[in-house]
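Sharing a chain and its predicted structure for anyone who wants a worked example. Both blocks are below, sequence first, tokens second.
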Amino acid sequence: MIVCGRDGARSLPTLLAALQRQTLARERFELIYVDDGSTDGSPELAEASGLARVLRAAPAVGLPAARNLGIRAAHGDVLAFTDVDTLPADDWLAAGCRRFEEPGLGYLAGGIAIPVGPKPSIAALVDATTYLDQELYVAAGFAAGANFWVRRSIAERVGGFNEELEHYGGDDEEFGWRLTSSGVRLQYAPEVRLAHPPRVRLRDVLRKAYRLGDAQAAGRRVPTGALSGTEPMFRQRWHYRPPLRMRRLARVLELDYEPTVIQLVQMHVVRYVCVQLATIAGDFAGERRLRDRARPGARGAT
């Protein structure tokens, strides 16, 4: 399995402890931790666990390149990917390996739960109803990077992750697009499960949306993927319209938490300001950043 992270020292011990509890026999899996330029002691934590083989990228190379480093270093035929801040179920690896006993399976999306707790913040509720909806992603033809599996031979055949998408966001979607476009079958496996904590502060929800918007500019410039050649969000008026109803509220209700009417109103406002408008702002910033880079004489221009 492959984990890529940067400055994840606060959450990495929880992940490592969960991997120590895996029901799959230890000799049947390896953990490759690719540290992408951390400054908080994350690689030392991973090494001290005795569980991980640590690869260090210094300076930072970005998530797609870090994932490719992990692919090249892996020995196994089946690659499982997750993030430093997830909590895999004890049978996560065993359940995924059982799925890959099925002939012809090359690409798998595992289930992702976002536990909001008994007294969630508005930010947590918005985060849980906006991101990491694996069922929705599978319907669109890709798996979220927090819990996806692929045969190494297939990942190598399509060229791994696109390192032109060096900024945050979109590399897992573009990778999945190339896999499914080449005929690889994607299967959803909710029993291959893990949990991902929600963002509990509004500024963190806003920051994620901004960074995802910023990443779209690069996605429009690569020849593959759903964003290729599309019009920027900030130029399309309909993106500025407030949503008429709350999407994916069922994800919270499934966790036995029912928001109050006041919370629903607050969620609606926060999603518009901290997600929708922040994504548009990031999209504008990313487009300007890449255009400035492409100007003759600009640093990094070719």
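Comments welcome. The mean pLDDT is 91.
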